[in-house]
Amino acid sequence: MLFLVTGVRRLFLLLRIKSLAGEVRDRDPHQVERAVGRVLGDPGFRIARWAGGAWLDASGSPVQGTGSVTRTIIPGHSPPMALFHDAAYQEDRDTMSLVIELVVSGSSGHWSRPQSRT
C-alpha cells in the first residue's frame, strides 16, 4: 500500500511540474524559482549561473549548497547553470529532468543578459 501511495504522490508532483510550463514561460528567474519551489515544497530552491568563479543567483548573490541542499548542473547550457534544491530530489531523475526543462524554457533568456553582483 505504501508503494502505491508513494507512486500516486510522485505522479501528482510530475503533473504539477508540467502544469507550470505556461506559468513560467519567459519569466524572470525569481518568478521561476518561486513557482518551482512552491510545487516541490522546497522554499530554498534556487537557479544559479556560473560567473566569476562562483554560482550566482538572479540578483548576483553567491549561492551555496549547505545541509540538505544539493546542486544539479543543467547540461549543455551557456553560461553554465545549476539548480540548488532539497537533496531528496537528487535521485529522482524524472522530476529533475522536468524541472530542468521548465527552468530552461522559463528563464534562460533572462540569464543570457549580463548580470552583476550587487
Structure description:
- By secondary structure, this protein is of the alpha+beta class.
- It has one domain (2-111).
- The chain has helices spanning 2-19, 21-24, 29-40, 93-111, and strands spanning 46-51, 54-56, 69-74, 81-86.
- It has four helices and four strands, in the order H-H-H-E-E-E-E-H.
- It starts with a helix and ends in a 7-residue tail after the last helix.
- It has a four-stranded antiparallel β-sheet.
Keywords:
single chain, 118 residues, alpha+beta, four-stranded antiparallel beta sheet, 4 helices, 4 strands, 18% strand, globular, disordered C terminus
In terms of structural class, how would the helical and strand content be classed? Answer: alpha+beta
How can the largest sheet be summarized? 4 strands, antiparallel
Topology order in helix (H) and strand (E) letters? HHHEEEEH
**Which stretches are poorly predicted, pLDDT < 50 over at least 5 residues?**
112-118
> Quick one: how many beta strands?
4
Tell me the number of helical segments per DSSP (H or I, 4 or more residues long). 4
Shape estimate? globular
Mean pLDDT: 77
**What percent strand?**
15-25%
Helical fraction equals 40-55%
The whole-angstrom Rg is 14 Å
The domain count comes to 1
With strands numbered from the N-terminus, the spatial order across the biggest sheet is 2-1-4-3
- Give the N-to-C terminal Cα separation: 51 Å
